Amino acid sequence: MFTVNLRLFKKKLALRRSSYRRFLNRTEKNPPANIDKLTKEIEPEVWAEINCTTCANCCKKMTPTFTKKDLKRVAAHFNETVEEFKEKWLRKERNGDWVNVTQPCQFLNMQTNMCNIYEVRPADCAGFPHLSKRKWEEYAHVHKQNIDYCPATLKMVEKMIGRIEALKII
Asked: Is the entire prediction scored with pTM above 0.85?
């Protein structure tokens, strides 16, 4: 597992963002027959190369959406009511979602890049970056967003491009 260098990540992304987005757009509209199987094969390879705790860019630049279950669980962790927790830590977006008031996330320990509420963290955080969460065509739009923040998503897209081109299935 490697330490994530965010400066190199941003540089690589800046150089290749358009080609990655073209790939994601193309495969979202016309996914190769085995893309979901390929995603599940590649995901463990990605995690063998990426150490999230050397990055935590998702916690620094993004915010999870708190579900009703998340709100109850995290509020209970702080011995607060859901309303007290929301008032203290969250804001409601126009679409009705509850998200963090601050960035970086108020629960991120900036010295260790570890979550202070890891055991009760929101489901959105627990599943991030959702590499093989759903069928490719249902989730490629999420990968298009996450590629700007997550080295694991970028690594997955690079590996997908390499495999698909090698198999000549696109």
From this structure: yes
